[in-house]
From TrEMBL:
Pfam families: Acetyltransf_1. This is GNAT family N-acetyltransferase. Keywords: Acyltransferase, Transferase. PROSITE patterns: GNAT (PS51186). SUPFAM superfamilies: Acyl-CoA N-acyltransferases (Nat). PANTHER family: N-ACETYLTRANSFERASE (PTHR43072), UPF0039 PROTEIN C11D3.02C (PTHR43072:SF23). Residues 15-167 form the N-acetyltransferase domain. Gene3D superfamilies: 3.40.630.30. CDD domains: NAT_SF.
Length: 182
C-alpha cells in the first residue's frame, strides 16, 4: 500500500484507512489515553505531549482509521534501536477508540501498517502486549505475529488498580516474507 493510497473497508460502518497528519494530534492522544486508562495497554499513565509522541514515532507510516471524519484508531511505528543494522526493525502500536472496539478496526490498522512498513523497508515488526489484554493478544496472532515469549515481571505499574504490581509482557514479532528482505 502506498502512503498516498486510501484503503476503504467496510465493517458495521464505512472505514477509511489513510495517513495521519498533525491535524489528527488531539484525537491520536485522546485514543492513546483511552488505552492507558484500561491499565492493560502500556506502563505509561498519561499521554505525552504531541511533540513527544511525534518525536518518538517514525514519520512514516502513521495510519488512522476514520469512520466518516472521526478518528476511530491509529497505528504507528517506533524505532527499536538507533544502530543502522536495525533500521528495518520497528515496534508497532495500534490503538482503537473505546467506542469503536470490536468492529475489526484494530486488525484493519495492523494489516495496513504491516503492508506500509514493508514499503518503507521495514522487514520486522515487534510488539509487547500485557497477557491480560486478550483482544490485543488475539489481534496479533490473527495478523500473523509469532509469540516469542514472556518477559516476566519486566516492569512495575505505577498507577491504577495494579499499581505497585510487577507485570509480564508477551513479546510478538512478524517477519516479512517478501524475498527482497532475505
Amino acid at each position: 500500500m502506498r502512503q498516498s493510497e486510501l484503503v476503504t473497508m467496510t465493517t458495521t460502518a464505512n472505514v477509511v484507512v489513510q495517513s495521519l497528519t498533525v491535524a489528527d494530534a488531539d484525537a491520536i492522544l485522546d485514543i492513546y489515553q483511552q488505552g492507558m486508562d484500561t491499565g492493560h495497554a502500556t506502563f505509561q499513565e498519561h499521554a505525552p505531549s504531541w511533540n513527544d509522541w511525534d518525536q518518538s514515532h517514525l514519520q512514516t507510516p502513521r495510519l488512522g482509521a476514520f469512520v466518516d471524519t472521526e478518528l476511530a484508531g491509529w497505528a504507528a511505528l517506533s524505532p527499536t534501536s538507533s544502530r543502522c543494522v536495525y533500521a528495518g526493525v520497528a515496534e508497532e502500536s495500534v490503538y482503537v477508540a473505546s467506542k469503536f472496539a470490536g468492529m475489526g478496526i484494530g486488525l484493519m490498522l495492523l494489516q495496513a501498517i504491516v503492508a506500509a512498513s514493508e514499503e518503507e523497508g521495514i522487514w520486522t515488526l515487534t510488539a509487547g502486549v500485557f497477557p491480560e489484554n486478550e483482544a490485543s493478544m488475539k489481534l496479533h496472532q490473527k495478523a500473523g505475529f509469532k509469540t516469542l515469549g514472556r518477559r516476566e515481571r519486566i516492569g512495575k505499574m505505577t498507577f491504577g488498580p495494579l499499581a505497585d504490581q510487577w507485570r509480564d509482557v508477551i513479546s510478538f514479532e512478524r517477519r516479512s516474507d517478501d524475498p527482497k528482505f532475505g
